[in-house]
């Protein structure tokens, strides 16, 4: 017997963050997970933190690689990570002030 139906379609999106346990990047991965879950509230069915080794830090949205520390040579800024995840799972979505931030002038 199944539970009551809310009439809402199931949330289709899955985000995965693979992080290096040897490098102790769990806290960074967990913080980014929290930020993504907050930003994409109601759009993500699950977010998985996957332990890895060898300096890995990769973020996937629906199985597509959106960030790789080894490819980029650095960790993502949270704004650019949110934009890349948005582009993968909800391209028409406005991220509010994140999208309106102009270029930095030093």
Instruction: Note the gap between the termini.
Output: 61 Å
- Average pLDDT confidence is 88
Q: List low-confidence stretches.
A: none
| Overall strand count | 4
Gyration radius, to the nearest Å?
A: 15 Å
- Arrangement of strands in the largest sheet: 2-1-3-4
User: Could you give a short account of the major beta sheet?
Assistant: 4 strands, mixed
In terms of DSSP E residues, the strand content is: 25-35%
What is the string of SSEs from the N terminus onward? Answer: EHEEEHHH
Report the principal-axis shape: globular
- Tell me roughly what share of residues is in helical segments: 25-40%
Please work out how many helical segments DSSP would assign: 4
Structural class: alpha+beta
Describe it.
The chain is an alpha+beta fold. The chain has 4 helices and 4 strands; from the N terminus they run βαβββααα. The protein has a 4-stranded mixed sheet. The chain is globular and about 40 Å long.
Question: What is the gist of this entry?
Answer:
With 106 residues, this protein is an alpha+beta fold. It has helices at 26-39, 69-72, 78-89, 97-100; strands at 13-20, 44-52, 57-61, 64-68. Helix content is 32%, strand content 25%.
List keywords for this structure.
106 residues, alpha+beta, four-stranded mixed sheet, 4 helices, 32% helix, globular
List the helices and strands and how they pair.
Elements: E1 13-20, H1 26-39, E2 44-52, E3 57-61, E4 64-68, H2 69-72, H3 78-89, H4 97-100
């Amino acid at each position: 017997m199944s539970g009551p139906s809310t009439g809402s379609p199931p949330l289709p999106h899955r985000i995965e963050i693979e992080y290096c346990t040897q490098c102790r990047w769990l806290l960074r991965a967990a913080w980014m997970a929290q930020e993504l879950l907050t930003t994409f509230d109601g759009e993500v069915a699950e977010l998985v933190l996957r332990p890895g080794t060898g300096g890995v830090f990769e973020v996937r949205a629906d199985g597509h690689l959106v960030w790789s520390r080894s490819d980029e040579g650095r960790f993502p800024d949270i704004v650019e990570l949110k934009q890349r995840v948005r582009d993968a799972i909800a391209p028409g979505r406005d991220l509010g002030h994140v999208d309106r931030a102009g270029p930095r002038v030093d």
